[in-house]
Amino acid sequence: MGILPKGVTNYTLDDASGMFEVHLDQACNAKFESELHYDRNVSGILSCGQIGNLSGISAQELFLWFPVKGIRVDIPSTGLIYFDVGVVYKQFSLSLFETPRDCMAVAHPPADSYDERFISDISSAKELDGGGAIEVI
Q1: How confident is the model at residue 62, as a pLDDT?
Q2: 51: closest CA among 10, 99, 115, 97?
Q3: pLDDT over 50 at 76, yes or no
Q4: For 18, left (φ over 0), alpha (ψ -120 to 50), or beta?
Q5: How far apart are CA 130 and CA 28, in angstroms?
Q6: What is the CB-side half-sphere exposure of residue 90 using CA atoms within 13 A?
Q7: Contact 5/102 with Cβ under 8 angstroms?
């Protein structure tokens, strides 16, 4: 399976609990049907047909990045894989993940929620502008 991109340098797995941690050589983005961001460290808990308590992966939807909290597949397989991004599951064809993808280095990884940063930037701009209208160029 190619859920993780190329560039894995090390990993640990506790067989008893299913807890794992994967180390990549760099934070990076990989393109599937949409863009996925991988931090240098990815961790979670493996169990039958799913990964829970996932951290270190974000999925892009439109212009926003959402942390992937879990990944699951149907048993028996329907050929689909589901990424839990909080409010919904993003659905992909399992065939997209047959081989690891190349991962492009990123200078600044996406924030867990661009919503909060965007709102913070707007609030700061309003204070500087005296609360008037803000024009986006």
Answers
A1: 83
A2: 97
A3: yes
A4: left
A5: 39
A6: 21
A7: yes
Q: Are 84 and 100 in contact (CB under 8 A)?
A: no
Burial label for 86, CB within 10 Å (0-12, 13-18, 19+), is: exposed
Reduce the secondary structure of 42-104 to three states and give it as a string. Answer: EEEEEECCEEEEEEEEEEEECCEEEECCEEEECCCCCCEEEEECCCCEEEEEHHHHCCCCCCE
pLDDT value for 107: 65
**pLDDT class of 108 with cuts at 50, 70, 90:** low
Tell me the C-alpha to C-alpha distance, in Å, between residue 14 and each of 18, 100, 136: 5, 23, 50
- What pTM does this model have? 0.77
Please give the helix or strand (H or E) that residue 115 lies within, else none.
helix 114-129
Q: Which two tokens stand for residue 15?
A: 């067989």
- Residues 93-118 have a mean pLDDT of 73
